[in-house]
Amino acid sequence: MPLLVLDRKPEYKVISSSCLHSLKDLGEGVFGKVHLSTYSSSQDPEAGKFLVAVKILKFCGEESAKDFDREASLLTQLTHKNIVQFHGACVDEKPWKMVFEYMENGDLNQFLRVRGPDAHLLEAHGGPMDPPQKLSLLILLQMARDISQGMEYLASMHYVHRDLATRNCLVGKNLVVKIGDFGMSRDIYSSDYYRVGGHTLLPVRWMPPESVMYRKFTSESDVWSFGVVLWEIFSFGKQPWYGYSNQEVIQLVTGGQVLPCPLATPPDAYQLMLNCWQTQPNQRSTMKAVNERLVELCSPCVKNSTLYLNVIE
Ligand code: AMP
């Protein structure tokens, strides 16, 4: 008998806790810990055993139950190669858990930081290890293209993300990038959010003027955030507007300022960012147009364009 009491049949797959075996911690978000686990389905032994990421919910009150149910139902509707797959939820015992596809290279922000030109400034993790391989321009563009494909799909489903940032994208096998977090706000990246009033945390550095001023979030505001994600990718995970306080960022953005071109970014890629940062939401590129341009830039026949004049060493 599930402990999560609903007045209807859940719209998501219910997974029994006995099918999961926890292996290690992967990280922690505002909603709780994330574990790497094995999953073996009792109903489908043919499927074998595979690795999954299990989000263990910290809060299990009545309000959280509604949020949990809403989020799990929504996640069930999303299926795309650039959206982290939701396998189902565990509600037969507390704490409740959500089971996701495991993305072996972790979150995109950390992934970029340890491979960027300033990686030596970061604390080394683990023992002696070879430095991770540098990322070519083509790989950076392919990562951006993956996210734009996921975002185009979300827009086609009339879903507004509101918190698109590299910290909310995950890197899997063969460096495929997927959008992986649909809940607002996180603990480990708390400096990326600005607290307004009591509990509201806003990712102001990723927000367009209309969202900062009127809290208006639309597919067009997601396009602006995508432009900031492109900037993060070409800056190897730097915080947008670093060196400025959140209050200063609000003044800059509402005063019409945009982020500068990151070092060694091809002009075509910066132009794409500028197209996402038009002040008027209806003047911005659509996610579809952004995706088409990125597909073009990733194709081998644009080798002679301005794109390859700058080389990232
Ligand atoms: P979150 O609760 O989504 O903020 O996740 C916290 C951390 O757990 C992330 O920064 C990742 O390092 C890790 N994580 C979350 N989901 C996954 C996943 N599907 N695969 C691998 N690692 C994950």
Keywords:
313 residues; alpha+beta; Phosphorylase Kinase, domain 1; Transferase(Phosphotransferase), domain 1; 2 domains; five-stranded antiparallel beta sheet; two-stranded antiparallel sheet; 8 helices; 9 strands; 30% helix; disordered N terminus; disordered C terminus; binds adenosine monophosphate; neurotrophin receptor activity; neurotrophin binding; metal ion binding
Please explain how this structure is put together.
- There is one protein chain.
- By secondary structure, the protein is α+β, with helices and mostly antiparallel strands.
- The chain has 2 domains: 17-101, Phosphorylase Kinase, domain 1 (2-Layer Sandwich), CATH 3.30.200; 106-125 and 132-297, Transferase(Phosphotransferase), domain 1 (Orthogonal Bundle), CATH 1.10.510.
- The chain has helices at 62-77, 108-113, 137-156, 209-214, 219-234, 246-254, 267-276, 287-298; strands at residues 20-29, 32-40, 49-56, 86-90, 97-101, 169-171, 177-179, 194-196, 200-202.
- The radius of gyration is 20 Å and the shape is globular.
- Adenosine monophosphate (AMP) binds next to strand 1, strand 3 and strand 5.
- Residues 26-29, 31, 34, 53, 55, 84, 100-103, 106-107, 170, 180-181, 186 line the site of adenosine monophosphate (AMP).
